[in-house]
């Protein structure tokens, strides 16, 4: 369609980083009545279910960021605590998921992208997930925007990868090659009792910032350099997260791509592209040979 082509073309030519920085300043501003009115408009436009939020009224939030990263009330989501399963890490919808074949992940029909590029370019990191599985979940504006752990894990590495800020909505995913390995992102690589896990938090147009619970807002200097942080496997400085624990959040929405080692898990066979996900529900099963 002509309108779709126009939307994609505009993304290539508009100053995405400048727009995102400007939106970030507004989202972080305590603008009083204007912030409240904007939140009210957002709730109405995107049909957000505020009954499940801990704070339920637009006036409860000082900034748009506070609203967008709102906490859910106790009991709004139940974490599946079965040790042989993984739970969904976010509310959203599955974009694609399946096998990693020849170092490639599926973005959309006709578009694949590189596992190594997605993880920041390090060959050794990519080898951890050769012939494994991946899952890509898109968070729409209406969704809860905190990201949780699908299984218990210990953080071993975090990587900040600079990049573009294309939208990550389904239209863009079908039309912009290498989208998730092209956009700015934060990669977290974990050890688990069943093998390595990565969770890639992908930035997008007007995503003001990405946070993790262990490092806060990830804001390396502007430029083309990849930044890497490593963490101990044990000791007082080790970062252990339980299944269902919060691990990060988006200040304005985006996508999470998870990768798993070969033979580690099998996805819920009732789920696939466009399946709606809810935090805590059944995501995947740990393969028997990997179970402890």
Short description:
The protein has helices spanning 2-13, 16-28, 33-45, 64-68, 115-118, 123-127, 170-173, and strands at residues 85-87, 92-99, 104-108, 111-114, 133-138, 146-148, 153-161, 185-192, 195-202, 209-212, 216-217, 227-230, 240-241, 246-251, 255-260, 265-267, 276-277, 282-286. It is of the alpha+beta class. The strands form 4 sheets. Strands 2, 5, 7, 8, 9, 12, 13, 15 and 17 form a 9-stranded antiparallel β-sheet that branches. It has a 4-stranded antiparallel β-sheet with strand order 6-14-10-11, with no helix packed on it. A 3-stranded antiparallel β-sheet has the order 1-18-16, with no helix packed on it.
Polypeptide structure, described:
- This protein is α+β, with helices and mostly antiparallel strands and about 290 residues long.
- The protein folds into 2 domains: about 1-70, no CATH class; about 85-290.
- Helices cover about 20% and strands about 30% of the residues.
- It has 7 helices and 18 strands.
- The protein has helices spanning about 1-15, 15-30, 35-45, 65-70, 115-120, 125, 170-175; strands at about 85, 90-100, 105-110, 110-115, 135-140, 145-150, 155-160, 185-190, 195-200, 210, 215, 225-230, 240, 245-250, 255-260, 265, 275, 280-285.
- β8 and β9 form a beta hairpin.
- The longest helix is centred in the first third of the chain and has 13 residues, at about 15-30.
- The radius of gyration is 19 Å and the shape is globular.
- The protein starts with a helix and ends in a 6-residue tail after the last strand.
- The model has no long low-confidence stretch (mean pLDDT about 90).
